[in-house]
Structure formats: structure tokens, C-alpha cells
Predict the 3D structure of the following.
Amino acid sequence: MLTHTSRIPSSSDGVSKNIGTEENGSFFTDGKGRFRKFWRKAPRLPPRLSPDEIAARNASIHISDKIDSNSEWKARQQKVKEAFIHAWSGYRNYSMGYDELMPISRRGIDGLGGLGATIVDALDTAMIMELDQVVQEAGTWIEKHLPERIQEKGQVNLFETTIRVVGGLLSAYHLSGGEHGGNASTKGPKPAVYLDNARNLADRLLLAFTSSPSAIPFSDVVLRDPSAHAAPNGLSSTAEASTLQLEFNYLSSLVGDPKYSLESMKVLEHMKTLPKVNGLVPIYMNPHTGDFSGENIRLGSRGDSYYEYLIKVWLQNKNLTYLQDMYKESIKGVKELLVRKSVPNGLVFVGELPSGRHGAFSPKMDHLVCFLPGTLALGATKGITKEKAMKENLLTFEDLENLKLAEDLAKTCYEIYAVTSTGLAPEIVYFNEEGHNGGSYGGGNKKSKYVDDILIKLADHHNLLRPEAVESMFILFRITEDPKYREWGWDIFQAFEKHSKVESGGYTSLDDVTVIPPPARDKMETFFLGETLKYLYLLFGEKNALPLDKYVFNTEAHPFPILR
Ligand code: DMJ
């Protein structure tokens, strides 16, 4: 039976503030490459209350509409928890120890190098959902098998392994009370097991930085050698090289060794010095020279989380002001060069410049770009509600403009789901800039107002259970408190339930979201448990759980406390 006794940090319980002791100061470099150290004091913890106790305290004598609607969202949150249990059961029954589940053929596959990626990616979601049995199963596997896997496995991708495995281990360490020196609130092994594995793995991953002749790390590491090398085309993705710093900074602060932070921050310090196009960057880098390679500019694959980490690494350490400057400049560039409106109905979208600033504009938008509404909202209010930020006069004109863009783009991200027969988004859409859709590129939902605005090419009809749209809905709900984001998230969740759920366990990627029934692709990506279901659960839950001004979520949805 799945039980739940633990709880997640909220803005009122002090856990989020207890982010370190004098033994584990945090380490960063500033923009000039200087090494800085921030000692943190262990604060006193207020008494802990269970969610039920808090609810009882706040309960009024009269049952209001608000309580009714809260209980409705609680029920929906419970549905997400059940979906997670279903996903985990499929994985555990048919593929325990493999990276991913193939839910139709009921077996496992090692698509990420064989470190049991689903287990580690899913673990903190199970902690947040208070699913002790899953925590126990995942934690026990990590304790028994991960050390050997780290020592013996072959090639892994630096970025994927950092965001999913190192990131998952670090947030599990935090959520299981590691910084308080004990197993405070969850089942499973001692928190130190998670930190030791993260460190052991990061020691090998560090070779990607140290063996590269430039500040840009190689993309691949061979764990058992250990050694590192460039990808077959000799290049590193810009997003991959610049999406490692939250994890390595947090690890350095936890273990009291600056080397992880120092190596990873060299990347951003170097990127600061490179020429850009209105703050925008090409999607490839050459680790041999440290320069950008080619001119292709986009916020979709290989470009996306560069922009996300500029602001998130600054939120993690506000002394790094050069990152906020780079972020602001890049968003200005997005608005000047990439944002347009579709015809006939004016959906705001972010396109691409495949041949650089002087080449043609492409109205193509990957689903991956749907991270941007959330990032823009976070960058505008720094995680507090819009109402509070307005009251305290904290928002500049630029912040308000970015928040408006975030809301417009979140609507577009919702409509690319609603335009299909299944209610699930395709991997890539194009926006109509000229007039008629031409019929053959429709998503299949004739009721959608946007059938002519959104074009879907045959090669892009698939859905990989990706999180970006619901991630932005979660962040925008927290910041604007507008209930429409919950409703949109609920629509998307129901579509996953209807079309992606596999009876025998797990959820599957789909080959074509425009037809019913949609053909299955037979793969459950780790981020469905690590991100998609976590963001939906948080979207429907208590507004003060893992508050966005006290936690920064890495690009794989693993929450790290913000260091002060
Ligand atoms: C995840 O691994 C991360 O969110 C990454 O930044 C982008 N791709 C997937 C999810 O779509």
C-alpha cells in the first residue's frame, strides 16, 4: 500500500530557509572569475504542522465557495498522484533499473547510459507527493545499485546526466532532510546516500570541463574510464553547456568544495564575453575554440535552457549580476527579432532565425519553447506574486511587458494542445503568417478557433509527454493567481489520461496527436515523472508549497533551495 507521512517545504515552515550550516558554505565565482564564498547560518525552525493541521487552523466556521473549489482542486491533485503511481508501477513492474519504460512492449531500455534515470528523476516527485513506498523502492535501488553503475557504465551525456541524475539526487537530498543531518521526513536510505552518489557522479562529469581546451565542456563522458570527448560532429549544444550551473553550484555548497561551481561557472563567464545577436546566441558551440558555431538562433531544442539558466542562476545567487544583464538583453532580443503574431487570430509566438540575423525568419516553434512563459514570469517578479510585487512597487515597465508576453505565450502554448483531435500538443508547430492554413496542416480539432493559425507538419505530429506547457502554467498560476492556468493544466492532464495511459502500467509517447486513436510510440520519458506530473501536482496543490522565491527548479524540475 502507498502511504504518506512526510511533507514538503512551504513558505511558512522554515525548511526552505534552513539551507545550510557553517560546515557547508556555498561557493560561486562572480562575473570576473573571482572565487567567492557565502557562509550561511542554520536558522531556528518553527514547529512543523501537517497540511491537515494547517487547514484546520485556517478553517472558518462557514463553508464558503472557496473551500468547495479548493476541495475540487485537491481532488484533481489526487488524480495526478494516482497517475504518478500508475506510471511508477508500470516502470517498476517491467523495467526497474533501466533508464526508461517501453510501456507497450513492457520492457526497459537504457536510452540515457544506464544509470536508472527514471528512478532518480522520479524520486523527488514521489517525496513531494508523500508516496513513502515509492521513495523506499527508489531510494533502496539507488543505495544498492547506483554506486556500481556510476563506476561501470560507459558513455553518458554531460547535460542529460547532470539535469536528471545529479539534479534528482541533490533535490532528494534536500527534501529528505539532508541539510539537517538526518532523515527528517521521508522513507528510504540516509540522505547522505543521495549526496554521495551525486558527488561521485559529478567527479566523473567534471572531466568534460577539465579535459576540454576551452571553457566549453565536451558533451560526453565515459564513466568507467573515466574520460570525456566531443560529440561526433565535434560540437556542444549551447543549451547543454549552459545548463549545468544550478546543479554544480548547489553541489559545491553542500559538500564545501568549490571545484564543481568554479568549473561550471567558467562556461557562463566565457559566454558573457562572446559576440551575440541582440543578446541571442547560436545553438552550437565549438569546445575546441570556445566559439559559437553556425548562425542558427532559436529558443527551441539546443537553445532553450541557455536563456532559462541565465535568470535562474542569478536567482540562485543574486551577486552574479552579469547574468541578469545577459538575460535582460536576450529577452529584448527575443522581442525585437523573434516574437510575431499569427494570422488570422493573432496568437503571439516565438519563431527562429535559422540563418542568423540577416537570414529569413521561420515561424516555427518547438513545444520546448513553452518553457519561456514561465521563465519570463519568474524573471519579472522573481518568484513572488504579481499582486505583492505591484503593491511593493517592484515591477519596472519592462517587467510588466515581459509578464504580458508570458501570459500571451502561455495562451499560445495552451492552444497548440487544444487545436489537435487528442488535446495533446505536437512536438513542433508553425504559425500561419500569410492567410490560409491550406487544410492539410490542421491539428484535427475543428472546434478550435485557431485551426488556421497553427500549422502542423507530418513529421512533427508526435508527443513525448513533455512538461514545458504545464511548467509555465504552474509558474504563471503561482505568480498571477489566475485560475485559468489551473483549468488549462487540467485539460492537458485529462488528455494524457485519455490518450497516453497504458492499461498495464505507464504512459506512452504518441506518434500522432491529430488522429483518434493516436498511434503509440512505446516510450515513457523520465521527465513525465520528473517534471510533467510534478508540475501538474504543484499546479493543483497548496499555493505555498515549494515557494518560487525560496526555491529554484532546475530545468528538469528538481527544486533546490535558494542560497542566501
Ligand atoms: C527535459 O529533459 C528538460 O526540461 C530539458 O531542459 C528539455 N527537455 C526535457 C523535457 O522536454
